[in-house]
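User: Please fill in residues for this 121-position structure.
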């Protein structure tokens, strides 16, 4: 989830494919790109997307549910910053031969959730 969130904040897909479950990879990449599209539609765009502490709930059988509060952060030219309200995002992760992989993500809506709907152009 950390790589997923860092990639989301930076807008760079580098390393993202490796943390996504192979069977869901294309679907998860499309979902990631849709979320990025919403973030870049925000006026003004946030300087970064910040995830909080990851709360892991072991489901057994090499599966876990992970929740983290996510918020937008804007930095001004004057050095001041503004943060949005944190909202919960949920991930399903599973362990496979290559480590823990994201199998699904349930983000809080960006437009109309993290930011007002009229802030998305």
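Assistant: Residues filled in for all 121 positions:
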């Amino acid at each position: 989830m950390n790589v997923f969130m860092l990639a989301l904040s930076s807008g760079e897909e580098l390393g993202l494919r490796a943390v996504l479950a192979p069977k869901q990879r294309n679907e998860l990449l499309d979902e990631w790109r849709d979320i990025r599209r919403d973030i870049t539609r925000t006026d003004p765009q946030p300087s970064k997307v910040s995830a909080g502490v990851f709360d892991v709930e072991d489901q057994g059988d090499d599966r876990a549910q992970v929740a983290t509060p996510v918020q937008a952060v804007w930095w001004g030219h004057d050095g001041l910053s503004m943060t949005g309200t944190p909202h919960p995002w949920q991930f399903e992760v599973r362990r496979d031969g290559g480590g823990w992989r994201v199998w699904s993500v349930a983000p809080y809506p960006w437009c109309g959730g993290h930011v007002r709907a009229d802030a998305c152009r």
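For context: The longest helix spans residues 25-41.
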